[in-house]
Amino acid sequence: MLFYALRRLFLVSITLLVASIVVFAVLEIVPGDPARLMLGINATEDAVAALRLQMGLDKPLVTRYFSWIGGMLTGDFGRSYTYSVPVMELVRERMVVSLPLALLALILSTTIAIPVGIFSAARRGTSADAGVMAATQVGIAIPNFWFALLLVYLFAVTFRLVPAGGFPGWDAGLGPALASLVLPAIALALPQAAILSRVTRSALLDVMSEDYIRTARAKGLPANTVLWRHALRNALIPVLTILGLQFAFLLAGTIIIENVFYLPGLGRLVFQAITQRDLIVVESVVVLLVATVIVVNFLVDLAYGWADPRLRTR
Amino acid sequence: MIVPSPVLDIRGLSVSIGTKPILKDVNLTIANGETVGLVGESGSGKSMTALTVMRLLPHAAGTSGRLFFRGEDLLGTSEERMCQLRGDEIGMVFQEPMTALNPVKMIGEQVAEGIRWHRGASRAEAEDRARRILERVGLPESRFPLTRYPHELSGGQRQRVVIAMACALDPKLLIADEPTTALDVVLQAQILELLRELVAENDMGLLLISHDLGVVADMADRITILRHGEVQDEGETTRILREQKHPYTRKLAEASTHVPVWENAAVPNDGKQELLKLTEVSRHFPGSRRGLFARGEPVRAVDGVSFEVKAGHSVALVGQSGCGKSTLARMILALDRPTAGAITFRGMETSSLGEHELRAARCEMQVVFQDPYGSFDPRQTIEGSVTEPLHLVDKRISRRERRERATEALVEVGMQPADMHKYPHEFSGGQRQRLAIARAIITRPKLVVCDEPVSALDVSIRAQILDLFAKLNDDLGVAYLFITHDLTVARAITHDVLVMDHGRIVETGRTADVLDAPKTDTTRRLLAAAPDLQRAIERRSTALGG
Predict the structure, then answer these.
(1) How many C-beta neighbours within 10 Å does residue B276 have?
(2) Which domains does chain A have, with CATH numbers?
(3) How far apart (Å, rounded) are the C-alpha atoms in residues B133 and B363?
(4) Which of A212, A221, A222 sits opposite B99 (nearest CB)?
(5) Is B251 in the same domain as B278?
């Protein structure tokens, strides 16, 4: 298992390296001068030249890459052009909103999806199964921003249970902070849960027709016990795959959801940075998001190794 | 006088799925310590009988009749009661050991699970009992710790684990559904011996299901022969096999010892053109990892093998599973390269050619695999699959010519030209194997490599396919390399035999000579293990007479 983990870790480092080169290259190769792009067409030559110097655009490409990646690794992300503060600072204060939001959504979607999938699989072909599957179909089809508005209307406007938007900060206490994250997390999680529960159901049904399930039944275990003890762990492998893939969509989803709920998170930061052409911020946040996705998929790989002993020796 | 009630007493059992009858009025009894063989071809309802006893039939199935287990009617009892009986008083062993175990659980865990479930034993007690039963089935803890996962065991070892699971609580009745069909003959003999011992030790009833009369002939006290869900013949084994009164019994017996009539059978070995030649061919695989940089000893899958095949000749390559047969076949087919040595096919050294130069050679050699179900693309028509090798032919082939050649190949293997528009699922296993052969001969190859081509087939189908191989050798002069662990097949259809063991060829010669007077232990072991109906009948008769 250790060897398996080390090998995965090595592959992750390679992936991260390649990803950073791609992100760097895309922003370098795009036609036009980044400094001019950031300043807009009305900027003076002097201003552009000054920004070029500040961004280090006069140095050769390779030097720039290494100083950029070196900065990244030591926590120096550069200075935001529009906010005039270190990008690191911006990212840090936004991260404490986005990371809990994403985690909350992830936890919510798995805790909903896996029991629902198991429920449906265990009652395959019944009207309960059909009802649940119809509901997930709706869940997949509804856009999350519209669903978010619906949640706001229902729980914030009509019942006044939670705030409609904004974030009081963690200083305001755990309760109020979490309360303002609940609706965005639900809006993010439900469509994901819909997909994940369908995957769980079909993976379980596939596994339930395997020979070893019949062996377990022949041992005298009742059908439901077999499902929990023998089928579930085998069915987890496709579920984990989808979970890893979904995480990227979850991050993309935060950009929209944070805007709907006026949350000062990374998604909103990157959205604003793009509209204000703050390339330094865009570059940093994109690399950060990419790194997060890669790390999450590394964790998924480790989970594979836990779930399936056959993968460890390979 | 009290007559002891039998362990299993099936009376007038009928099963249907939807409107389709599966079993019709089946009667069968098993007494304590008795082994009853249930024989029939695929689709005859053997497995359905077993699943009915276990009450593990698909939900849609309807049953009628009575089914008593130690006096208790199982068809009328509750699911809770069935859960108590399954795995405790009734054990079951399945056909496919490779998939019968949960891949993510350790073997100790899987054996102990039933013990804990039924006896409420603690983990330690259950593991202790699991340890003992695993040792009993030949997996001592010193070599096979409880923490092994199924993928770390071979097929024969996995089947032992399945048997350990079924017998962990000393069941009164054991149902073994084709327990050895997926194993080679030596392993088959070992597993059957183990079952025989367990029956004697625990005085349990054994329902042994098989498609092969030869397998049950040695094991069963009584035989029931099933066809299309109906009992054809049943009674004491010796009588059934010696008298062979029922025409279907006779047919099955003949099919299992069938030898095709074959013009080329007597063709002498010399004077023919050399087709395939292997010189000191080896294939070593890197050993398994021992650490970050260290590796174990390399595995010598094939080790210095030399032989040749002449044009139009049929050669058997026999040996136990894992002896290197399939690795060798892959190298001959240029799907893998030897680590040392050379393979020459029709004067071309295929072991050193690039993929492009190999096209000409590939056109001249084709392959037929064991599993007629897995070797067809389910979404392609038969025409598409059968004509696929034609892309190896150098000249462009028009659509019409493709169709003509497909027609010709289908007719040659005994199928209808109209079959080319159908899909694989519309055919039975035997028909699919015919189609696989049609695909192999469509390019008019000089050599066809057959990897266990009949071991997945029923005896009567097997006899037909062997006849087909013989006919095609007569008609087309195609040479065969038959990879098999079944010596009956080797004897029926090959001129020469190569016996392989641990990557080496240990014995070669004319098939009849080698099999009649084996010189090495490997060959003797294979011969002794091979189920032989004739021998079994003789043995039983002398036992009765003496």
Answers:
(1) 23
(2) 16-73 (no CATH), 87-312 (1.10.3720.10)
(3) 53
(4) A212
(5) no
Q: Which residues pair with B482 in a beta bridge?
A: B316, B450
Specify whether the CB–CB gap between B23 and B52 falls below 8 A. yes
What ipTM was estimated for this complex? 0.82
Domain that holds residue B507: 273-287+296-537
B159, B468, B182, B184: which is closest to B325 by C-alpha?
Answer: B184
Residues 6+ apart with CB under 8 A from B430: B372, B457, B458, B461, B464, B465
- Whether residues B32 and B103 share a domain: the answer is no
**Are B188 and B105 a contacting pair, CB within 8 Å?**
no
Would you place residue B1 in the very low, low, confident or very high pLDDT band (cuts 50, 70, 90)?
Answer: very low
**Is B509 within a domain?**
yes
pLDDT at B270: 58
Q: How confident is the model at residue B7 (pLDDT cuts 50, 70, 90)?
A: very high
pLDDT of residue B4: 63
In a shared domain, residues B78 and B97: no
Mean pLDDT of A11-25: 89
How far is C-alpha B516 from the chain's CA centre? 24
B545 lies in some domain:
no
Instruction: Give the number of domains in chain B.
Output: 3
Write the CATH number for B218.
3.40.50.300
How does pLDDT run across B485-523, given as a tens digit for each residue?
888 889 889 999 999 999 999 999 999 999 999 999 999
What's the CA gap between B483 and B474, in Å, rounded? 20
**Quick check: A309 and B162 CB within 8 A?**
no
Of residues A3, A234, A308, nearest to B289 (C-beta): A3
Cβ atoms of B36 and B220 closer than 8 Å: yes
β-bridge pairing B35-39 and B222-227 = parallel
Q: How do residues B63-84 score in pLDDT, each as one tens digit?
A: 999 999 999 999 989 999 999 9
The pLDDT score that the predictor gives to residue A3 is: 80
In chain B, residues with a C-beta closer than 8 Å to the C-beta of A10 are none
Same domain assignment for residues B377 and B466: yes
B396 and B440 belong to one structural domain: yes
Q: Both tokens of residue B395?
A: 């000249």
pLDDT band at B387; cut points 50, 70, 90: very high
Determine which of A36-50, A206-220, B135-149, B301-315 has the lowest per-residue pLDDT on average.
A36-50
Q: Is B44 helix (H, G, I), strand (E, B) or coil?
A: coil
Contacts of A220 in chain B (CB under 8 A): 83-88, 114, 117-118
Average pLDDT over residues B103-113: 94
Q: What are phi and psi of B21, to 5 degrees?
A: -75, 135
Q: How far apart are CA B316 and CA B293, in angstroms?
A: 41
pTM of the model: 0.83
- Percentage of chain B modeled with pLDDT above 90: 59
Report if residue B193 sits inside a domain.
no
The average pLDDT across B446-472 equals 89
Q: Are B421 and B514 members of one domain?
A: yes
Please state, rounded to an integer, the average pLDDT across all residues of chain B. Answer: 89
Interchain CB contact of A203 with B (< 8 Å): no
Q: Do B56 and A214 touch (CB under 8 A)?
A: yes
Residues B131, B205 within the same domain: no
Predicted confidence band of residue A32 (pLDDT cuts 50, 70, 90): low
Residues of chain B contacting A310 with CB distance shorter than 8 Å: 103, 149, 151
- Chain B residues whose CB is inside 8 A of the A6 CB are 292
Optimal mutation site among B80, B104, B153, interface A, most CBs of chain A within 10 A: B104
Residue B409 shares a structural domain with residue B489: yes
Give chain B positions within 8 Å (CB) of A304: none
